[in-house]
Amino acid sequence: MSINVTRSSMPSYEEYCEEIKTIWDTVHLTNMGPIHNKLKEQLREYLKVQNIELFVNGHLALYTAIRALGLKGEIITTPFTFASTTNAIIQAGCTPVYCDIKDDYTIDESRIESLITENTVAILGVHVYGNICAVNEIQHIADKHRLKVIYDAAHAFGVEYQGRGIGDYGDISMFSFHATKVFHTIEGGCLTFRDNTLAEKIFQERNFGVAGEALTRFGTNAKMNEFQAAMGICNLRHIDEEILTRKAAFEHYEERLAGVKGIKLLKFTDGLKQNYAYYPILVEPSDFGADRDTVAIKLGEQGIFARKYFYPLVSENKEFGCDMTANTPKALALSRKILCLPLYAHLTTEEIDLICDNLLK
Ligand SMILES: *Cc1c(COP(=O)(O)O)cnc(C)c1O
After folding, report:
1. What is the predicted pLDDT for the residue at 322?
2. Which residues line ligand 1 (CB under 6 A)?
3. In angstroms, what is the span from residue 259 Cα to ligand 1's centroid?
């Protein structure tokens, strides 16, 4: 028996076949077809956002967000993220400037202003594990210094704060619909934004910079195809039920692990509508009696595959310009102690008990 850190949600074979049937009538495989457009409308409603554009994956969506805002210069961001965030910044011709994190693992807004220079153009925060950045405080700083705000909301599908969809904060947010995420389209993603005038730029950037017959701007190819969109339509039908089963699993973990010496659980922002995307624990070796790496190995020997996520930090890699870990000691320390335990829809109570029993042993 083995339990993986995540497992993709699948509609029934029949449900997916039913959804793709019309493609044989329309022979419309990609380039913003009818299923793409239907999913786009459904997601705009579900995510409670004003504008949305779908993408072939989350990474190219994030890259396109930076391009569509016309940013050139330094972007203040967090090193405690997946490689995609930094890759997108550099790929778009900007320079990442790393800001340390807080105890809730998101970018520390109290340190942002000290990192602003005359070259700073934007702040790019990450809603880590579906826990959100200090969106109101960050907007305040951005307004004061005339900076753009982008959020990597890859982990935050369906999360709401103060009655608003989380994708409604900042200038642009990116959601990932990768197979390992709470909601997926096999590979996929989207950008959400309030400014209507961005829609055309994003639409064109996603399609080689082409508008009708004209080549209006630089662009890439990042369109979502009809087979991806059909998977999205199916998965969206079951998403509320799936998040409820994730919630039950999450709460069972909390019951089992709260108060365990040497294990610190993440405290989510008050008043957040969560999506229960991940179950991260922080292993404090001196108190727990074993370090994170040992715990991961021992669990693996029992067929339980937890993930060191995020480890190592992107800023530790010389390829990304420079080693700036000296400026982000909290992020560096966390990357050595963090471990994501298995969490996915329909993970059973018995499986969680097995995981916790082994962990505590
Ligand atoms: C998954 C993920 C991405 C990239 O999304 P893809 O859809 O896989 O391209 C970016 N940032 C974070 C934090 C992610 O977890």
Report:
1. 63
2. 57-59, 81-82, 84-85, 126, 152, 154-155, 176, 178, 189
3. 32
